[in-house]
Amino acid sequence: GFRRAVDSLRREIFGRGIRPMSHVGEVYPADMEECRGFLTGGEREKREMLGLMAPHMDIRVAKETYWEAYGRIRADKRLVIILGVSHYWHEMPFSALPLHMETPFGLLHTRKDLIEKLQKFYNFDITYDLLSYRQEHSIEFASVYVKMLLPEAEALALIISYGEKEFLKGLAENLLRIVDRELPHTLIISSVDLSHVGRKFGDPESYDPSFRDREYLGLLQDIRAEDAFELLKSTNNPTRIDGHYANLVFSHMLRKAGLQKGELFDYRAYYEEPTDSIVSYASMGF
């Protein structure tokens, strides 16, 4: 019964073809001009980037750090790959969103042809976890910035949920294969936060996670994808860095595309007093 209900819900959402906004009116305004004013910061020096790491933290808290990343995007990007994480139940190691994405700036169109190409590498349905996207802010917040800054661009959004190192490296290489000659006009976004420590997350008390964050960010900045992944895996990721899997795919893509080094734009931590908890986040360009 439950499985049947879930399947019929999936079919209904798939049939509509659009992922509605879930956090609008609460985290960011519905009105286009109001939203633009809310998201946009001061003028930033534009960068020629293939990769961008940005937070998915509540925009109301982390707006400056978001803008340190998104404010540097050049307008010539036509394809954006969004790599998010799952905050909800997600069965498969990863999934792709087969729906267009609603934003205050209009629909961000999904490149369904790329999903079909990617599917050929896998024997499970890569759109199976469709329901995980309904409230997924790591996808939604990125889509809003992308549509605002690159109104003509199209997208491919994926949730990277879990996986062995070689499997995730394979996914990175398959993504590069399907993008192929479009790479010069492509932007890859890793929509991730860093550490989650304190009472809210099961620690006896909060503590400063920057020692671990800095080590991890240093490896990412040098595009040492596997070393960054192993650092968290070997220590069991005690500070709960949530980009563990997404960043391996992101970083391996950049390495395979021939990049050598990234630039850290911003790093901050947000302390939530009532729960004695800290979430850290950063923005980086490659």
Q: Nutshell version of this structure?
A:
The protein is an alpha/beta fold. The chain has nine helices and eleven strands.
Molecular structure report:
- It is a single chain.
- The strands form two sheets. Strands 2, 3, 4, 7, 8, 9, 10 and 11 form an eight-stranded mixed beta sheet that branches. A three-stranded mixed beta sheet has the order 1-5-6.
- The protein has nine helices and eleven strands.
- It has one domain: LigB-like (Protocatechuate 4,5-dioxygenase, Chain B), CATH 3.40.830.
- The model has no long low-confidence stretch (mean pLDDT 97).
- Helix 6 crosses helix 9 and helix 8 packs antiparallel against helix 9.
- By secondary structure, the protein is an alpha/beta fold.
- A hairpin with a 2-residue loop joins strand 5 and strand 6.
- The protein is globular and about 45 Å long.
Q: In DSSP terms, counting alpha (H) and pi (I) runs of 4 or more, how many helices?
A: 9
* Terminal residue distance: 47 Å
Q: How large is the radius of gyration?
A: 18 Å
**Strand fraction band?**
15-25%
What's the name of the CATH homologous superfamily? LigB-like
What is the highest CATH level, the class? Alpha Beta
Low-confidence stretches: none
What CATH architecture would you give? Answer: 3-Layer(aba) Sandwich
CATH topology: Protocatechuate 4,5-dioxygenase, Chain B
Largest sheet: 8 strands, mixed
